[in-house]
Specification:
The termini are far apart. The model has no long low-confidence stretch (mean pLDDT 96). The protein has six helices and six strands, in the order H-E-E-H-E-E-E-H-E-H-H-H. A six-stranded mixed sheet has the order 1-4-3-5-2-6, sandwiched between helices. It has 206 residues and is α/β, with parallel strands linked by helices. The relative contact order is 0.19. It has one domain: Lysozyme-like (3-Layer(aba) Sandwich). The structure holds zinc ion. The site of zinc ion has 5 residues, from loops.
Length: 206
């Protein structure tokens, strides 16, 4: 294994592209639907302990289709918000818990879904929106940024990390989606660690 062809571990091609092209997050749209149930987090109303990042796993849907589907099927599962390249849409009050990762994570975290993107630019824009939204929520709820994905402790979670360290489901999103789109468009897998760095960049700019 020669070192010359190995990219620097900490350099993220996706994050670099976002910075180089001055890709900026969109503003949050609030469209709260009255049908979602209101249950308190384990520490109380308005007391989430972190954020869980999801990805829908559906290659054929758009954000409005996903939101409509979730309203119809909220009894099985729902999240607080949806993100794509052009939107951050908050549909459920983040002061109350959502049903996206099972027990015990549901009683701890704000949760949002990313819709699958199909171009390089759209993926980069979506990731920037998602990182900004995590940073915004951390600030909003006075939570310190802390990557939970490698040790199961902290405020920034993937669904995969919640499943691995807390249980409640066997899902692995958005790890595979990030890896796939990173490799496809940037010749380098995108990782939760790299995403966490983008969250920090956004957090510092708030
Ligand atoms: Zn998930």
């Amino acid at each position: 294994m020669l070192g010359i062809l190995v990219p620097q571990v900490n350099a993220s091609a996706v994050n670099h592209y976002i910075a180089k092209h001055h890709i900026k997050h969109v503003t949050i749209t609030t469209k709260i639907w009255g049908g979602f149930p209101h249950y308190k987090y384990r520490h109380g109303k308005g007391k989430p302990e972190g954020v869980v990042v999801h990805e829908t796993g559906n290659p054929h849907s758009d954000i409005f289709g996903e939101i409509a589907y979730m309203k119809k099927n909220y009894r099985n599962a729902f999240v607080h918000s949806f993100v794509d390249d052009d939107h951050i849409i908050n549909i459920a009050n983040t002061n109350y818990l959502a049903w996206g990762v099972g027990y015990p994570g549901n009683a701890r975290f704000v949760q949002f879904e990313q819709v699958e993107m199909h171009t390089k630019k759209n993926f980069a824009q979506e990731v920037e929106n998602a990182a900004y939204y995590v940073a915004y929520l951390l600030k909003e709820y006075k939570l310190k940024p802390n990557d939970a994905c490698y040790d199961g402790k902290g405020t920034v979670w993937s669904h995969a990390a919640a499943a691995k360290y807390l249980g409640g489901s066997d899902h692995t999103d958005p790890v595979g989606y990030y890896k796939n789109r990173g490799k496809k468009y940037f010749h380098q897998a995108y990782t939760m660690k790299q995403f966490y760095h983008l969250v920090l960049t956004n957090y510092e700019n708030l």
